[in-house]
Amino acid sequence: MSFTISSADARQVTFYVRGDMFGANDQQNAVVDRLRELDDDDVIEGYDVRVWNSRVRLTGTETPAEVEQYRAFESWADAANVDIDPFFTVRERDSFVDGTARELILPVMCLAVHGDDGLEAVAPCARGDETYTVRDCLAELETPDAPARRVTVPAED
Question: How far apart are CA 113 and CA 11, in angstroms?
Fold first, then answer.
């Protein structure tokens, strides 16, 4: 599975990481190193690293930024006919303090590729038995002219 990440687009990559996953630091640093190389080689226009919590509440009056990002990823996944739910998990949690709450569990690492026309790729995602990983997305960024299927969700203002 792959997505066309057009070399004509001004691609901006956002790398989301969970700050609580100490065992994943080497993998996360390797991704940042590859993004730095892609940026230095002008393969991408730039990249951003954002740290997110391992879980966020879906119930309550406030909508955390992670939930808004998840919803944008869900819209893209629907348009691309892929599934992000194996990697972004919604669970109910019982607490004696505040009762039952719905939580979104976020992946350890996630890449989002934005082009001129909006969101072009999110990794990880899956279609059937195929998984599109962060590593797959980086490889596709390194070879943007490889034949693939383009799926874009318009940018929201």
Answer: 7
